Amino acid sequence: MPRARLASRARRRAGVLAAATAALALTGTQAAAAGSPASAVGPLRGHDVSSHQKHVDFPAARSDGARFTYIKATESTTYRNPYFDRQYDGARRAGLIRGAYHFARPDRSSGAEQAAYFVQHGGDWRADGWTLPPALDIEYNPYDDEHKCYGLGWKRMVDWIRSFSDEVESETGRRPVIYTTAHWWQACTGDSRAFAADHPLWIARHGASDPGALPGGWARWTFWQFGAQGGLPGDQNLFNGPPNRLRAFARGW
């Protein structure tokens, strides 16, 4: 590994607290049980996009209430979102705090290999207050109905996620946010509690008035994806806290 790259990583890691510190310091504000989650008092609105959205009008999204966005960067070690640079830079120019996510394919290669590919192709992080920590999107296999957990048992899946996380932390100084559903986490990790202490949770639960029971020992959620459609491009999300907490979370405080 080149010496300059090691030095750069060391500088990034210096003075950076674990991502969980910010997540655990969240106020715990929950979306109101009555009415639409998007109108809840407290949590900030945001969205996530991929190549499906192509050319996203981020200034319009911000005018419509978005304050953050996650953008798909990579999948496995063979795919990079062809619109990623345009989307990622466009979100920043529009004044959105933005981050990148990786779609996991545990049946294709190791967690460490996919994490390295992700960081090299958009999943890096800087403590500039505008960059959210890298996120791992891990959910049911959309390509194979016979192997929804990618052919891995609970222990191997937990090991795969840990391998991905360790490489991301080594490369960027941050533990990744984990995007998942409670159902997938139970089915494919045995409801493992191995990540709750030091990984922010991005929980997906659509069409409900609250995020529901959280998986794997997590005490609170950091992001909640509550719908696939709404007023913002792509999927609809909330951040569990006020604007100053989102900025602090981005910085790693």
TrEMBL record:
Pfam families linked to this entry: Glyco_hydro_25
Localisation: Secreted
Signal peptide per UniProt: 1-33
Coiled coil spans: none
Domain of life: Bacteria
EC number: 3.2.1.17
Keywords: Antimicrobial, Bacteriolytic enzyme, Disulfide bond, Glycosidase, Hydrolase, Secreted, Signal
Record GO cellular component, one term: extracellular region
Gene3D superfamilies: Glycosidases
The reaction(s) this protein catalyses: Hydrolysis of (1->4)-beta-linkages between N-acetylmuramic acid and N-acetyl-D-glucosamine residues in a peptidoglycan and between N-acetyl-D-glucosamine residues in chitodextrins
A GO molecular function held by the record: lysozyme activity
One Gene Ontology biological process: carbohydrate catabolic process
InterPro entries: GH, Glyco_hydro_25, Glyco_hydro_fam25_subgr
Role of this protein: This enzyme has both lysozyme (acetylmuramidase) and diacetylmuramidase activities.
Family statement drawn from the similarity comment of this UniProt entry: Belongs to the glycosyl hydrolase 25 family.
Name this protein carries in UniProt: lysozyme
